[in-house]
DNA sequence: TTTAGCACTCATTATCCCTGAGTGCTAACG
DNA sequence: CGTTAGCACTCAGGGATAATGAGTGCTAAA
């Protein structure tokens, strides 16, 4: 059954008032904004309550939106907030300044979102499933150290500097590289067995166990990349909001946020328009989130993989503002990963118009 | 003036009792542990209070150690806690499993310390001062992408994958590598001027601005490495302790911990024995830490550089336990960075005794 | 020097009461 | 029939008051 236009207007006022003030809103406040007496409003509010859109903290307080009320607000009543051009520009610039490795960027983005919204934020990377090494490169640094660079099929690159007790020649290293690339690329974590290593080690001859060392490193990287990684930021923002003045509540949520494995196993729901999704209170599956809201946005990592960035807060959350900012950041991230050349170079060296790149 | 042996014993009991219970400790509780009447204890406590080692929250509560009391306890009364072999083993193993890049290890170590102690922890890396690139390597991945690997004089390695709109040949890349290594190694951040890039760009001919792109990346890395980086973990542990049941207090400290720039500019005092240092309440210079204690331990990063790892908590902190664990972790870190070959390889592939490495 | 005893202090907790914001209901009004 | 004024009712929040009890300082005796 559809609500009357007037009921919707009232609901909307209640939600927005409550979001702004965190105080239950009473009939008088609304009658002031609408040209109706408080008694009329009370009747309407009673209806809205019966329909499950409003709740009373207690008999003699005003009304507060129920999760269902927020849901209706988010679905129908909320005006999509447009960020000013200035704001989007700032966000994108902040993203672009650091063109580091993927995970650093994501971490940074999480911090940014938290700062932007004043809520705790978290960011998850793809959760790739199976990853394999697509190439090994070994770079000789000096007689007894070298850098191993590995790249995966998902185009992530990791490196590590190794020091050795013995001398090492370019030839040895080249031989090793070839061996690694023939025997260990394209193999999943499980396929990289100790046997395989032993065989290769044998084939390499007197290489002091270098194969195992590099492959072990690769395995760690694979493990790292196969699992979603989690970054959280700004947990302390929780305490700014009146609903978390109760230390017990705050702590419960904060420990949940600090628990990376739990967070990373968060089931990711399908995104709506704008690539965002809003989960209100009990709509969350995780027990710890039952009376908080989560706003999510997904971003493209490339290769069809997706990551998620999200904000956690009380159900009384400024959904419009948060969703807008989150969406902007997520879009910025997708753009960042999707493009050919990072544009930071343009920023810093515009004085000479050498390259004709997109 | 030296305290009598008995006064010291009383002070020690008070400190340890208070650390354990967070309740002011009264004369009766002590008289039970010592063979003295409560009245005698009261007299002694009155003395200790006059000397500034104890405080009363109010007239009719027990006594609480003052910062000065904690200091005496830490300096003279506290028994250095030895971790069990099992514990040290666990800590070292946990550190060794992840033999990733330096900053990941440090981050991990911070998390570990927090978990070990149930207090928030933070970790700072060296804060190197001037860093320069010691070598560039470019690895051709396919026609239109390559990996740039840069290594600094402080032996840190960073990498990034670049995609290009145009094709690229091995020769071009080799040429670029040489050019980068001749013109841009050994230069500080300030010396890597746009002019220098323009000149090199010109020398390289039609390379689509690749020089600037790689050098820009290098500059970002340098900037990153020159500044101390900060990692914090386990802020939510704060809320577990009764002294932070007051949300205002908790929030003040948590925001301080979340403020990376502030934390990284924390002046690092000289370390004592065990490479640890305890700062009690007002001994801290930072205003925000005036009524919290900080336990620090320093670790060697190599090349004579040092990092710091620390724990933050109320002055009522289990100094012995925290210092012991922190020291163990810091030692583990130094060891990890100092040694020739990471021992993780041994762990996973002991089945064949191929290499003769330390 | 130690101890028993006693008067005193004061945070904590419970109880009570008042106030005021807000409600539901009813009856009158247009 | 929808709207409104009026009125009795509810209940959280805040202040005042009192009882409780843990702990103290001081004094006088052992």
Write structural notes for this entry:
The structure is a homodimer of 358-residue chains. Chain A has three domains: 5-77, Arc Repressor Mutant, subunit A; 85-127 and 229-338, 2-Layer Sandwich (Beta-Lactamase), CATH 3.30.450.40; 133-226, Enolase-like, domain 1 (2-Layer Sandwich), CATH 3.30.390. In chain A, 45% of the residues lie in helices and 17% in strands. By secondary structure, chain A is α+β, with helices and mostly antiparallel strands. In chain A, the strands form three sheets. In chain A, strands 7-3-10-9-8 form a five-stranded antiparallel β-sheet. The first copy, chain A, has a three-stranded antiparallel β-sheet with strand order 4-5-6. In chain A, a hairpin with a 2-residue loop joins strand 4 (133-142) and strand 5 (145-152). At the A-B interface, strand 4, strand 5, strand 6, helix 8 and helix 9 of A face strand 4, strand 5, strand 6, helix 8 and helix 9 of B. Chain A binds a DNA duplex (30 and 30 nucleotides) through helix 3.
């Amino acid at each position: 059954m559809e609500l009357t236009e007037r009921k919707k207007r009232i609901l909307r006022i209640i939600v927005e008032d409550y979001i702004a003030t965190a105080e239950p809103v009473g009939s008088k406040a609304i009658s002031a904004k609408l040209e109706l007496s408080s008694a009329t409003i009370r009747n309407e509010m009673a209806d809205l309550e019966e329909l499950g859109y409003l709740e009373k903290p207690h008999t003699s307080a005003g009304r507060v939106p129920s999760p269902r009320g927020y849901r209706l607000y988010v679905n129908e009543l909320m005006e999509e907030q447009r960020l000013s051009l200035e704001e989007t520009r700032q966000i994108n610039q902040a993203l672009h300044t650091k063109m580091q490795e993927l995970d650093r960027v994501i971490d940074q983005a999480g911090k940014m979102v938290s700062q932007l919204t004043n809520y705790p934020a978290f960011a998850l990377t793809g959760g790739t499933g199976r990853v394999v090494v697509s190439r090994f490169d070994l770079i000789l640094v000096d007689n007894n150290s070298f850098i191993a660079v590995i790249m995966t099929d998902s185009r992530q690159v990791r490196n590590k500097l190794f020091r050795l007790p013995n001398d090492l020649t370019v030839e040895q290293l080249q031989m090793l590289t070839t061996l690694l690339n023939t025997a260990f690329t394209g193999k999943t974590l499980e396929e990289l067995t100790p046997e395989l290593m032993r065989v290769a080690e044998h084939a390499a001859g007197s290489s002091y166990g270098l194969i195992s060392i590099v492959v072990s490193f690769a395995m760690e990287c694979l493990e790292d990349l196969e699992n979603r990684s989690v970054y959280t930021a700004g947990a302390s923002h929780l305490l700014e909001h009146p609903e978390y003045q109760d230390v017990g509540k705050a702590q419960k949520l904060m420990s949940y946020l600090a628990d990376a494995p739990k967070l990373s196993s968060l089931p990711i729901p399908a995104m709506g328009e704008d690539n965002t999704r809003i989960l209100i209170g009990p709509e969350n599956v995780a027990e710890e989130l039952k009376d908080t809201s989560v706003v999510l946005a997904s971003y493209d990592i490339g290769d069809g993989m997706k990551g998620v960035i999200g904000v956690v807060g009380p159900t009384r959350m400024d959904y419009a503002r948060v969703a807008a900012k989150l969406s902007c950041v997520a879009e910025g991230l997708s753009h960042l990963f999707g493009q050919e050349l990072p544009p930071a170079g343009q920023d810093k060296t515009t004085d000479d118009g050498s390259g004709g790149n997109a």
